[in-house]
Amino acid sequence: MHRILIADDESNIRHVLEFSLQAEGFDVVEAADGEEALRLAVEQGPDLILLDVMMPGMGGIETCRRLKAEPRTAHIPVVLLTARTRAEDRREGLDAGAARYLTKPFSPHKVHAVISELLGVPR
Prior knowledge:
It is a single chain. By secondary structure, the chain is α/β, with parallel strands linked by helices. It has a single domain (3-117), classed as 3-Layer(aba) Sandwich (Rossmann fold), CATH 3.40.50. The protein is built from 5 helices and 5 strands. Helix 1 (11-23) links the parallel strand 1 and strand 2 (27-31). Helix 1 crosses helix 5 (108-119) and helix 2 (34-44) runs parallel beside helix 3 (60-69). It starts with a strand and ends with a helix. The mean pLDDT is 93.
């Protein structure tokens, strides 16, 4: 079973993603901010991280940079989730090491398709 770490400061988004991912057979771990996401990534060893860009404290871009700089988490694909739609924002996220950049609002179906692609999981 693949483990997904969801890091988002909005609990309703975490819960919608958790519900839809668990229904698809994924194990889900949740974090409410970047610091918690970094800690859980090391402790839980997720197969993929869904990371909100705009969080209080450490935002998703900086969290992604730190995940990619840490040898224990550098291999984990990161999918950034954000309301920011400008090309510069997308470029910044991908330059930080994200595998994908999805803009809100997004459907759980789209998120699952991206996860399946990145993890090589049949849909």
